[in-house]
Amino acid sequence: MPSQYADIIALCEREGCAFRENEPMLNHTSFKIGGPADLFLIPSSLAQLERLLPAIRQEGCPLSIIGRGSNLLVSDNGVRGVVLALTGSLGEMEQTEDGVILCQAGASLDRLCRFALEKRLTGLEFAFGIPGSVGGAVYMNAGAYGGEIKDVIRSASHIDKDGKLSAFTADELDLSYRHSRYTGEDACIVSAAFALMPGDPEAIGARMEELKARRRQKQPLEYPSAGSTFKRPQGSYASALIDQCGLKGYRVGGAMVSEKHAGFLINYDHASCAEMLALIEDVKRIVKERTGYSLECEVKMLGI
């Protein structure tokens, strides 16, 4: 391990922060693709984050922050520098007042949805079954089935590279289709508050199960993927355009356009990142040539 990480490792040992050297990133993405990260950190508290982030900056190490890796494609060569993962260890949640849930960024969306159901609160049903973290959902304004994070979020808190804790209101978050103020920034989202409405728990639960069943029926959940690979182009749908071009089942090595849902590019057979990237580019090129639409990839690239 390069000496540049020695001080960060020593800090992790003092703080009790879990870390792994040369950690295979395929273990931390829903694509099941990716080479090793030089140093992989799993903080378990906000206090650790507040001390780690300035230390990483001071050492001049490249830093990548991830959640559950459900919208992430990682290079076959891995990731240089530090990868900091916000997972279940930072997943606490509570109802702070009537209709408001405060949730740490490492919690899964499914867990947040179930908590809202327990509290008889409606508004998050659309997110049940989205395989991501709360932090990742805020980062990209995740949405499905007519709902988006921007519809229910009240505020979000983050720690900047200097270790300072700050917050943005919903308006300040600048939320739009698959975009937030955090997109492309290096701030670490640590929590979000959601403003929900009282509802009938039977109706809430039924809607959640209905949407999850619809996902199982229409999406290739049996294969590793990052969900919908492309953003929705104005005036159409990526999956419809890809299907129109006859690309279901189109393969590059172990990467394939799903035969079940054309909007999903799947790791069909031990695909490499290079193969998945080639498939993405082929789909974009063919759709552009045959329909005139330019598809934009929704998946975040790391180490590429």
TrEMBL record:
The active site is at 178, 228 (proton donor), 298. It is found in: Cytoplasm. Residues 32-199 form the FAD-binding PCMH-type domain. The keyword Calcium does not apply. Pathway: Cell wall biogenesis; peptidoglycan biosynthesis. It catalyses: UDP-N-acetyl-alpha-D-muramate + NADP(+) = UDP-N-acetyl-3-O-(1-carboxyvinyl)-alpha-D-glucosamine + NADPH + H(+). The keyword Cytoplasm applies. Its main location: cytoplasm. Its EC number is 1.3.1.98. PANTHER family: UDP-N-ACETYLENOLPYRUVOYLGLUCOSAMINE REDUCTASE. This is UDP-N-acetylenolpyruvoylglucosamine reductase. It comes from Harryflintia acetispora.
